[in-house]
Each structure stands twice: as structure tokens, then as C-alpha cells.
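Side project, low priority. Logging it here so it doesn't get lost.
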Amino acid sequence: MSATLDIDLLRSFLAIAQAGTLSAAAARVGRTQSALSMQMQRLEDAAGQTLLHRTGRGVRLTRQGERLLAHAQRILSSHDEALADLAGTGLAGTLCLGCPDDYAAAFLPHLLRGFATQHPLARIDVLCAPSPRLRERLAGHSLDMALVSVPVPEVGATSQATLLRREPLVWVASPGAEALQQRPLPLALSDPDVLDHRAACEGLARAGLPYRLAYASGSLTGLVAVVRAGTAVAVLTRCAVPPDLMVLPESAPLPPLPQVGLTIEHASARPAPLARALAAHIAAVLPAL
């Protein structure tokens, strides 16, 4: 009897590839780690290949595992799409969406609520991280798609058509914070390769204003906490500024900041139907939020 690729085994394999650890994948698919390990042994027996390597930090796909991952995503997508079409209940399946913290807080509740109404059987897992970290995960196929920040192109540039929204970067401080008068200016910024970090440092350098990095974090919660304490000034997207913090006016003695664009990037050049549907929903709704 010829070997077959069981749908449940492929779904568990995909969960492991996306989660990176057996414990996280087991929680996602509702099985114990031992049951998941047995499933992977059955899948490796069917494939006749070693698909996973256990490491001290989790689970890593072998080269054959990476090849199977691409097939598994297509098989599961077609399977779920067929069932949803027959049931007349919209698309089904699981999709991993990446989103920076600032956009997640401002936009995701509305976007996901509307999508769930159209596709109640779909499950969207969300990972929040800075845009460069999301791109790394897209490249490794541990995310299906992501909302990411990009530089706003020059007027007339053809890539402007891909932007779903523009958000201004702003200087943010706690009202009455002594940090504004300190020199060098204490800053709370995200990772060095993130657009807001680069915009702040490049703007201050051009203006000849001395600064120091007082706090660095990829977490929006951490940056906001430091600014609330009054010990540093941050650069955030305007949509992410909490109401108790102050957006510094353009008349403040700090350099102007650019806008950033928001766009969608996919892990695959041929996204699955669920990913295409979510991307279309976001493109239709996000600009008006």
C-alpha cells in the first residue's frame, strides 16, 4: 500500500513549524507533546524522511522538512477551502499574521472582528514584533503574512500604490517631563533597524542635537512605560500614542520626523486563499480607520 500524507498530521506539522517548539504547537492544536511527537514519527514514516531536528531552543526543520512545509501549506489550504465552499460558511483554516505592536493596538481589533464575521471558521494567530523581526519570520515561513512598516516613497514613486496607510512619526513625552530639558536628550527607542529608531537618530544628528539611548526595546509597552516615568523621550507612530502622553508640537526644539507607510507582505509568492482574503479585507478597511 502506498504512503499517504494525513491531513491531521500535516496540520500538526505546520503548527510545529510555525510555533518553533513542541509545547507551543501542542497548545495550538489541542494535543499533548507526547501525542504530537508520535504524530511526527508517523509523518516521518510516511514521508520516508527525517523532517525535524530537536535543538536546545526548540524544533528546527530539516531540509526535507522545509520542502514538505511548502507542500503542507498548499494541501491544507486547498483542503480547508474545499470544505468551506461545500459548507457555505466562508473560508476555514489557520493563518499566522504578524503585526507591529503599535498597529496591533490601534487597528487589529476592528480588522479581525470584521473578518471573523465573514469567515467564522477561520482562525487567525497573531504575533506582535517590530517589522524587521516579522520579515525574518516571513522568510522562515513561520508567519503567513504580516503588516509591516516601510519608508514612505518620494512623490511620484511607483511603490506608493502598495501603501495601505500612512502614519506620521511623532516625538512623545510625559507632560512636564524633565527629560525634555536634558542634554544629551535621553531617548527610549525600539530596535536599531526599525524606522522610528533610525528617524530619531538621523534627525537629531542632522540638527546637531546631542542625545543618548536611555532605553531600547522592541516592546511598545516597555517604551511607553519609560516615557510615562518622565525619564526619556520616544518616537512613536501617531496612532500608538496613549492619551496620557503628549505629542510634542512642531514648534518644539526637535527635528521634524517623516511618515511611515503600512503595507502587507506574504511569506509565499502564491498566498493561500485565506491569506488572500485577509489581505483584501485589510486593504479595504484599514485606510478608513
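Brief comment: The domain at 89-289 is CATH 3.40.190.290 (D-Maltodextrin-Binding Protein; domain 2).
Revisit when time allows.
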